Amino acid sequence: MNSSLYQCKIFHKRLKPVERQFSYAVFMLSIDLDELDQLDKKHFLFSRNSWNIYSIYDADYLDPSSEPIKHKLINFLQNQGVETENISCFILQTFPRVLGYQFNPVSFYYLKDRDANVIATVAEVGNTYHEKKLFLISEKDKRGWFCSKTRKNFYVSPFSNVDDIFDFQIGPIGKKWSVNINDLDEEGIVLVSTIRGEQKKLTSIRLFSYVFRYPLLTTRIIFLIHWHALVMWLKKLPISNKKKTAQQQTDVLRPHHSLTKK
Prior knowledge:
By secondary structure, the chain is of the alpha+beta class. The chain has helices at 36-42, 69-79, 204-213, 217-234, 257-260; strands at 4-14, 20-32, 46-48, 54-56, 87-94, 97-98, 106-113, 118-126, 132-137, 146-151, 165-170, 176-185, 188-200. The radius of gyration is 18 Å and the shape is globular.
């Protein structure tokens, strides 16, 4: 099977207006979207669209419909002008639901052609309002990394501007996996974020061990986000108002009422 796991370390460093950094250990699923039902049957701790220790719900990705993730992704790509006929494999790198709780600050889709070459990636960025925004990245640098600098136009944090720039650098999937996503303003880097992962075989025994190695994975991630937000708020960092910047937030999936309420 193409599906696997990645043991990862996530690192964040804010450079201004104050310096602050932290890191934490997590694991992410690397799933061939055509194997979701097989994984459901094979691993007793994993389910698709039903409660378990670990689960993937189709409705958690892209738009909130229960249509299969792959179908929704193909629809998005076609709307972006991508010819999808030659894409034979869709790999999703993501955090699963844990005990039914879901929070994904970012997921990645890798699109492979019939020769198993990755031809493009899609970053699916989420925020604590449960909104999503998709970024198609198809240009490679000399290293073979998919890279793009693009205006966010998305509310990610109260401590960054919605019109900052995302600097995506998404490495290939293999035994080692690396991603850099930096937040830039007009003067340079505001926030550095990295993921460094090591591939592991997806087995039922490993999933069981991760219950203890990474307890309450997604709950811990959302706690850390709010904890460090509290620390920065106590330091009196300037805050971006979500409602007042509504017009700058574009192409948002699952829009919060702050964007839709007039």
